[in-house]
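sorry to bug you again but im stuck and you know this stuff better than me. theres a chain ive been looking at and ive put its sequence and its fold in token form underneath. id like you to explain what the token line says about the fold, in plain words if possible. anything you notice is useful, everything is just below.
___
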Amino acid sequence: MSDNEAKDSVSQVNTKVLGSAPAMAMGNLYQAASQALGNAMQNATMSQQELNTIAQAATTMGVATLFGNESAASAPPLSFDDEDWDLEDWDLED
């Protein structure tokens, strides 16, 4: 291999690397943007789940307050399996 052939070979490799650099840069940019967007979606989902849990706890405490219980933990257990329980015994007109 002569010096000119070696120089041509190195020149061709350099040209190929320089030619593919913009595509590699855009690929890296798209990958980083996709990762950031994925993280943002996961954070939004987690925040929504936490807010739903807080809303459910607030609703439970509101219902417990309406029924006159100090807290939901002190409320009696609900059971509709009791034979003495009858909806007709309740005065729902008021």
Notes: Helices lie at 3-66. Residues 39 and 86 are 53 Å apart (CA to CA).
